[in-house]
Amino acid sequence: MTKQDVLKDYKTRDGHIVTPGKFEGEPVYVPVFWDRGLDGCADLDESGVYAFEVTNEDVTDFPELEGVNTLALEESETGFVNSSEWQSLAILERHLEQISELEDDEPQELEDEDITTSDDTNFRPEEK
Fold first, then answer.
1. What CA–CA distance (Å, rounded) separates 22 from 25?
2. Which residue among 33, 43, 61, 116 is least crowded, i.e. fewest CB within 10 A of its CB?
3. Rounded Cα distance, 125 and 80, in Å
């Protein structure tokens, strides 16, 4: 998919897709990079995130990417693709690792003494 394909297939306004659907509200370059990710050309494909280090060629095709180092794309549970910009691929990788660690943490079971119920004196209303 190319920029020309996007401009042909989607209605756009101010560099963003306005056609309802998966890419609605995203910059015009998102479907191009999403397609690259599906083709296995992402610099990082981890935890449902495709990430790309933005090249000079990318900036030539999409001048709005000037100053962007890393572009990340993720599909939401409702099927929409969301983009985010990162200072570097390494920072994004650390972020994804932290999220993974948080998700891997098993909830701790509470002991009976850690649970307070309305029958306990701590919850009795003050008398007036």
1. 9
2. 116
3. 48
Number of H helices, E strands in the chain: 4, 6
Whole-structure pTM value: 0.76
- Closest C-alpha to 1, from 64, 62, 49, 77: 62
| Distance, CA of 99 to chain centre | 12
Q: CA-CA distance, 46 to 84, in Å (whole number)?
A: 15
Element (H, E) at 83: strand 81-86
The domain limits of the chain are: 3-91
User: Exposure of 92 by Cβ count < 10 A (0-12 exposed, 13-18 middle, 19+ buried)?
Assistant: buried
Structure tokens at 10: 């989607």
